[in-house]
Amino acid sequence: MPTLLMIQASARSQGSHSREVAEHLITRWKTAHPNGTVIERDLAKQPIPHISEDTITGFFTPEDALTDTLKAANALSDQLIAEIDAADTVVISTPMYNFNVPSALKAWIDQVSRVNKTFSYDPEQGFAGLVQGKKVYVIAATGAVFSDPALADMDFLHGYLNAMLGFLGMPIDEYWLVEGASADPDTLINSKQAAVNHINQLWG
Asked: Helices 185-202 and 17-32: crossing angle, nearest 10°?
């Protein structure tokens, strides 16, 4: 049974352009996969705590040596990674805040970036991503127009997500930029429509 994991990172429940496009994607995906399952992880409604000292200790402790305290510290990370493992398709829907990912999304990334679970390290071979076989899509909404070369160097969101998800073994298949929300209404309309059109082509 196909499964879609949708990560919603916008703090807004209303008026969010990234959420609008994400909801359209879910609708189209459900139409194409009537027997499929959608796991929706809303980081505004279900805030992810930042990793703590116990979390870090738990991540690097062998499972047979985990105390009850460390097991509890790892529990959320275990759940979030299980959601990724269960999905065939992973979609991250996020705004840009201050040129990068929202802290809510960073907290999710910190919880799922875990040695010997989603990546490995070998002194001779280096790092390897352990999350394999996923289709990965990103919907990013920005206030400014970052396709403008004058602002391109300030877009740390795209490069960060591309590097981080690739590091885990799940490189981005499609990245849809919905831009100009605060600066250019025409660009906003056009970029949003382009994303919707592409989604329709994928799950028409």
From this structure: 20
Confidence at residue 204, expressed as pLDDT on a 0 to 100 scale: 79
Q: How far apart (Å, rounded) are the C-alpha atoms in residues 44 and 50?
A: 14
| 3-class secondary structure, 34 | coil
Asked if residue 83 has pLDDT above 90, the reply is yes
Task: Catalogue all structural domains in the chain, each as residue range(s) with its CATH number.
Answer: 3-202 (3.40.50.360)
d(CA 39, CA 4): 6
Q: What are the b/e assignments for 67-105, b being 16+ CB within 10 Å?
A: eeebeebbebbeebbebbeebebbbbbbbbbeebbbbbb
Cα distances (Å, whole numbers) of residue 71 to 60, 75, 81: 12, 6, 15
Residue (of 191, 165, 195) closest to 5 by Cα position: 165
> Tokens representing 83?
């959601």
pLDDT of residue 77: 98
C-alpha R_g of the chain: 18
